Amino acid sequence: MSAVNYVSKNSESLKDKQALAMNISAAKGLQAVLETNLGPRGSMKMLVSGGGDIKLTKDGHVLIKEMQIQHPTAALIAKTAASQDQVTGDGTTSSVLLIGELLKKSETFLVDNLHPRVLADGFDLAKERVLEYIEKVKIEIDGDDLDFLSQVAFTSLSTKIHTGLAKNLTSVVVDAVKTIQRPEESIDLHMIEIMAMQHHSDVDTRLVKGLVLDHGARNPDMPRSLTNVYILTINVSLEAEKPLNNIVVGYKDASGREEFVKVERKFVDDRVKKIIALKNEVCKEGKTFVVINQKGIDPGSLAMLADEGILALRRAKRRNMERLSRACGGIAVNSVEDLSPQNLGYAEKVYQHVLGEERYTFIEGVENPFSCTVLMKGPNKHTILQIKDALRDGIRSVKNCIEDGCVLPGAGAFEMGARLDLLEYQNTITNKMKIGVQVFADALLVIPKTLAVNSGFDVLDTILELENQHKQGNVVGIDINTGETIDPTVNGIYDNYRVKRHLMHSSPVIATQLLLVDEVLRSGGQ
After folding, report:
1. Are 486 and 478 in contact (CB under 8 A)?
2. What is d(CA 512, CA 120) in angstroms, rounded to the nearest whole number?
3. How far is CA 299 from CA 191, 221, 223, in A?
4. What is the Cα–Cα distance from 300 to 142, expressed in whole angstroms?
5. 108-140: pLDDT as tens digits
6. What distance in Å separates the CA atoms of residue 471 and residue 511, rounded to the nearest whole number?
7. Residues near 473 by Cβ (< 8 Å), separated by ≥ 6?
8. Under a CB-based contact definition with an 8 Å cutoff, are residues 414 and 495 in contact?
9. Model pTM greater than 0.85?
10. How many CB atoms within 10 Å of residue 148?
């Protein structure tokens, strides 16, 4: 009896070695795209959108997100690398390189008809061994050591932007994370606002221990700068609201219309008068008053507030309302009936700054700045985007370092040490799984090899020198400036603990799954 074919005759199918060859080829192709970006000396990619917008970057996460990857295997690897960034904040490029190298090294043995399951079992053993090695070599740190945190931040920033700019941003990144850190609480990075201004100097970036709002007052009579400021954050409409559900109001005559407008205006004015009354109650001896509203404020209400010397901002972002409460103290009020001095925040200075056609409001000198703003300036759009991506990774690296309480030696030192440890472990295995361990060990060399290539040095000489030093018990990495070996702990080059741990856990899992694919079916419709 002939077998029943359940697959559409229009579908495409790849089986056994063809499926493996397709997966390995896709992994190597994606690896070839990203490997030139690794490390501080890595090159950059120019991304051009359909509309002609240009983005220059060497950030693996940005490249993965912006590239239109159509190959299914490459797309799967890209999603894995993207999840690495989402969970840990870094390691996207390393993830792609390690997955690609695992499959590339496996290809040699698959050609000799070694079953993929043998390699997969070896990968599992090697993965557990490497995770144990991470616990042995991790370096315990003090989360309050600003110099150490600066070294961690610089290591991360220098892989995304040029060294001079990375040095300028290092202190900004560390200060931003330490500002929002609260005892016994996880660090909420949403409390750091990154504000971009197009400016003539790309290194003119500073930290504002307070808040910068991307809008200003809508009334020309309002004060431009205030000191000793009480800040009221409210979520109350100070304008005539539109009726709900398309209600139509009819009038018998023009006087009825005028009476309705007066009542509506009085309703809004009464709310404004209660705010003014609170201002008069608390503002004595040089104190001033600012109102920041999440909802709208109409021109009439703005005029009333301006007459009393009150600076009022409308339609603030919801996230900024939370940041304001963290930075300035006070409680956001949802009704004018709840107005009281206890709900007010305080700042030493509030002022407006005009840059071109844009207007910004600065709130500085807060007592407990558990929220802050990184004011980022760049000469053009693509530079601003590049700095923003670097700041994001730098901030995440400092956060990881504080929460983990430990780091790993960088500059390729960890990978070389882990490889030698795996080779020693391989000698204790007597079955075929030792081949998988060997493949994993050799694949780890992709990081120091790529660092050497991108820095312009001979790979063979560099790796041999690294291996010799490690066999002598010296934990050393690659000096990207000279090609010699260096002690990463002396030179302040560190990798995040959670980034490496997640990388060593997720990459072999995806490589294993791709190795065990024995058929690929592409739907051809009905």
Report:
1. yes
2. 5
3. 31, 12, 16
4. 55
5. 888 888 888 888 889 889 999 999 999 888 888
6. 29
7. none
8. yes
9. no
10. 18
